[in-house]
Amino acid sequence: MTSQDERPLQRIAVVIPSYKVKRFIIDVIASMPEHIWRVYVVDDCCPEGSAAHVEAHCTDSRVRVLRHEVNQGVGGAVMTGYRAAVADGADVIVKIDGDGQMDPTLIDEFVHPILTGEADYTKGNRFYDMESLSSMPGIRVFGNAALSLLAKLSTGYWDLFDPTNGYTAIHADVARRLPFDRISLRYFFETDILFRLGTFRARVVDIPMDAVYGDEVSNLKISRIFGEFLRKHARNFIKRVFYNYFLRDMSVASIELVAGLSIMTFGVVFGAWHWANSATHHIATPIGTVTIAALSILCGLQLLLAFIGYDVSHVPQRAIHCRRPRPDATPVSELSPMSPEQ
To answer: Which residues contact 238 (CB under 8 A, 6 or more apart)?
Structure first.
């Protein structure tokens, strides 16, 4: 009998959150490549009865239907799928949406860097090809650009873009380390996963993909969630900096951050107090006072920029999952499909 550590890395599972996608879900399942080991359809208390619809019209033996009694949001549905796939022995878990926007033929491109030990987690990026990007509504382009900048700050993955892209893949050994009960359950969950991955230095890689928009109705309104995202990004940024630069490790960047904030704060407060005092008494501020405030602000800013430079240069570069590829590993597309019962 082959042990879990010895068996080939070919158990690729797909998680499909299902909420108001009844008219697309059967076609999405039917388009799954043959070498996919198992498909988890997670009915997130769908008012259209997605679970019953799949059970009634899908004959694919790879499909497992999971149900939520209460709507938990797309993040909650994905976490349910992750739990089931990990418990069943999946090696890599891919998440795609059930509305047909994500091309299942790209699954191999998302899985390959994980199976070859180049990444622990892969995610789509719709901003590589400017021609295909033209199909994305302007408000989404602007919103995703703003959210991407915030995500870089809060997650530490400065080399990634398009953080709300839901086409992802993760190694099961890394998924096991995620705090499922603490990850944001709704639209912030993709970015929150990146933050969690960053805390244990997982390697994340962007996969180019086209932006596709059909006649589906998106439930994500960037103008509505931007304030919530801003608050959560700020929270994660503070937690990440404290954990990475003070709790788990200390480096020259830790000193640069503390000194930069202290000196700049002094310069701002000192300069503002003297400016207000001079304005109140209608007297000129001494040149020495102005110089002290300006130099403090500039020195503090320089130290903060040095900290950011250090942070940018220390993006995780090595995969952390425990399995390493064998020299004779079979390419993903050539793997023979496994029985769903294996």
So the answer is: none
